[in-house]
Write a structure and sequence with these properties.
4-stranded antiparallel β-sheet; globular; 22 strands
């Protein structure tokens, strides 16, 4: 690989990155989580990236970003809530965003979360907020809460939660959530077809028992995990029978180097 271009923030650091394509003109944008906020960088000309806009926020070492349609959804471990940004409006000079902390459920009751580690949005426009917690006296799940961002992009509806354990990161396909429960050191496979009543179908301990993330193969037969520890493994599991998950392989990128596998993705 060769470097095409770069953009630097001299007084802060980045934590995560996502991408978005303008549906009007096909322009490409990098969405960056920074310690002190959120940045949108135009990379349509990769050798000349240009910051389109920046939103200052509470300081945090971690932000995670996903998109649905023309909106970006940003979580942070600072108690800032869910940052929702109208990307199409903002790149056209009308900076439009809000921090949302309160979410209504189908009964009109309110659920509050102010901090979370990660977010994943599935193919149906359901956002899974991992590690959600609150400093306001509310008690949402620190596993995952489920929000509908498809029907109400700027005021997502609360659909339910899974709160057996803290989820550090995960992904969803169809009706199945694959979760890395870092403090139990296990992969969890959870049926979320009924968002108000998710059901754990299977679990398996990961090689170093510090499960950071999980990702499923395209055919749905295998899951891959990482453990966020020095000299740990990327591992693979046969989940064709989720009630009897079997580890089938594990690999270290450079044994003895103390390298830490952070995330695994299957493409």
């Amino acid at each position: 690989m060769s470097l095409i271009g770069e953009y630097e923030w001299p007084n802060t650091e980045g934590s995560d990155i996502w991408g978005w394509v303008d549906p009007v003109d096909g322009g490409e944008y990098a969405l960056i989580g920074l310690n002190d906020g959120f940045s949108c960088v135009n990379i349509s000309s990769p050798s000349n990236p240009i910051e389109e806009f920046y939103i200052s926020d509470l300081n945090s070492t971690w932000r995670d970003i996903k998109t649905w349609g023309n909106y970006a959804y940003i979580t942070t471990e600072a108690h800032a809530g869910l940052l929702i940004v109208d990307l199409l409006s903002s790149i056209n000079g009308n900076l439009t965003y809000e921090h949302v902390t309160s979410f209504l459920d189908v009964n009109g009751d309110t659920v509050v979360f102010t901090a979370a580690h990660n977010i994943y949005i599935d193919e149906n426009g359901v956002a899974y907020i991992f590690g959600a917690s609150s400093n306001t006296g509310s008690n949402p799940s620190d596993g995952a809460i489920f929000l509908d961002v498809n029907s109400q992009p700027t005021s997502p509806l609360y659909l339910g939660e899974w709160n057996d354990h803290y989820i550090h990161d995960g992904m969803v396909r169809g009706d199945t959530l694959y979760a890395g429960c870092i403090y139990t050191g296990e992969l969890y496979v959870i049926n979320v077809s009924d968002k108000s009543n998710p059901i754990t179908m299977g679990t398996h301990i990961t090689p170093n028992a510090f499960t950071h993330n999980a990702w499923v193969s395209d055919n749905g037969n295998f899951v891959f995990t990482t453990d966020e520890q020095s000299d740990s493994y990327v591992a693979a599991y046969d989940i064709s029978d989720v009630t009897n998950i079997q580890e089938v392989d594990r690999v270290q990128s450079n044994p003895g180097s103390l390298s830490i596998p952070h995330n695994t993705h299957f493409d």
